[in-house]
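A further point concerns the way the authors explain their paired sequence and structure data. The central task, working out the structure tokens from the amino acid sequence alone, is never made concrete. I therefore recommend that a typical entry be quoted early in the introduction. An entry of this sort, consisting of the sequence and the corresponding backbone structure tokens, reads as follows:
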Amino acid sequence: AYERRFPTCPLIPMFVASDTVSEYKSEDKAIHVIERRCKLDIDAPRLLKKIAGVDYVYFIQKNSLNRRERTLHIEAYNETFSNRVIINEHCSYTVHPDNEDWTCFEQSASLDIKSFFGFESTVEKIAMKQYTSNIKKGKEIIEYYLKQLEEEGITFVPRWTPPVECKSESSTSHTRRLVSPAVNIPDSSTKEALNNKEILNTSGSPSEPTAGTPDDKLDADYIKRYLGDLTPMQESCLIRLRQWLQETHKGKIPKDEHILRFLRARDFNIDKAREILCQSLTWRKQHQVDYILDTWNPPQVLQDYYAGGWHHHDKDGRPLYVLRLGQMDTKGLVRALGEEALLRYVLSINEEGLRRCEENTKVFGRPISSWTCLVDLEGLNMRHLWRPGVKALLRIIEVVEANYPETLGRLLILRAPRVFPVLWTLVSPFIDDNTRKKFLIYAGNDYQGPGGLLDYIDKEIIPDFLGGECMCEVPEGGLVPKSLYRTAEELENEDIKLWTETIYQSASVFKGAPHEVLIQIVDASSVITWDFDVCKGDIVFNIFHSKRAPQPPKKDSLGAHSITSPGGNNVQLIDKVWQLGRDYSMVESPLICKEGESVQGSHVTRWPGFYILQWKFHSMPACATTNLPRVDDVLASLQVSSHKCKVMYYTEVIGSEDFRGSMTSLESSHSGFSQLSAATTSSSQSHSSSMISR
């Protein structure tokens, strides 16, 4: 009668739906354990639901029926808002000790509200109201279904008796066989139910695999269908690790496919695999990763400007994820969202990848445990090497490597530009060696030739932006409007201190007093990189080279202005007696940068010596036919208070040995400033300016 209330019950209006998460039946049919995910429409004020951001809440309910002992144990806990509110409920149906024709019912529950947007007392009242209502209606509901069974002619259920050829519970407890190829045995649930009545006593420490495990076998068809080729040793490792988890881990036991990923990541070393798997399970529980797809909605900024998405599958049946990294404004996304939102979005992508692997396994009839990622680098430039953005990328790689091992089947990197080795130098040390072997990198249009994209992806699904005929619905990315950027205070309030870290320095630039930074280069072919924001005024950016060191930096008195700059320093290095062309030379053409622009670039050094990066006040040119200034010039000059500009900048030198020997080498040309930046930074600047003006 109790099972009749599933998957939904008309007598419980708040009970909208339920889905079976896992199910187990013992061979002798004495034990039946079923776990469901229940969807509830809580009777709460609309305002509270809007603040909480949910319309429904989800509970996990596990029912353990023991026909041998004639007991039904029911456990339930909340999945939604579990980091804020903890609800646990226990119910049991048992036979009365004095009259076995009577059924005893016991129910208990606990509520612990840690925090709930300042509505703790309201939530407590709602919870108590719902719980009291459920208690009053519980007997009514069970009697309703008992009467329904009687009307169907079912008035008696025969007492369970052990099959004639059934083994004892102690011997069968060591036989781990799956009822069907698609379902894993939730042994931990069964043992937990049995242990409540102290029926089963196991010997030995629960942290050690039992002695009988090596003799266990997995069904051959199940292995072929869901796990792939396994040697007897590998199969034994999987069984040992799974049984250890079932006996020691309190919580959801991962599926065999996921356990197998951790074993493969550690070459089937059980101790090492167990260590990283336990760390990952703890991490998943702490951050509620199992429910991220159902409970978290990505911000609109990510949906509009994150240039990535799923796109069919490759020739091996692996789900295909397309990432147009070159078209994505990583700096803008970090400035608008912070590191945590980006990480959470990447985690949701990986969780969706796991889900798609399961679906493709069913569709293609063979085990598919990983996906293929296609990364298009067309448009990649120094903006993508913005240090906080790289820092966020490294953290994402670290988290994914630790918790999603062996999920990347192949990584196809297309149209890699000459700036790519710089990015590769920064991120490759954080990528596992086994993962790195799966990388295939193509420069230019090499992906269109032999050994290219057609070897891995069917012609019919090659995206249109790569010359294919298949329309790809992945967002095109583009620059994130600066109006969406978060302020330093907002980031700080959320403990996300990214771009405000000390790696960025602030400098003031005055008319007649530029700000200069000295960089000493020992080895030629080193790469000088820079990233700066023009916070106020217009400036001219220059790069100079000198064979001799300038005098030690000195603070400029700013002449008659006598202006101090609390918001940034001002350092001048080039001596006034130095002559351009004799004492120092210009290695880049001057670049005029407007207020509000972000500029990134690089310079591959030709000679050792001293390089000087200079930010200089930009004076408005006078009209060519008259000595009188133009009206536009006068109006523009009025916007620059006291002839003062302000920049925030970061510079870094990457040694030649760091990128020498990479898949591609940086061109030893004049620089990326005139060639790379002219093609990318300048165009992005004009785009950014037009965005601001609009």
The two ends are 66 Å apart (CA to CA). The longest helix spans residues 120-151. The first strand starts at residue 15 and ends at 25.
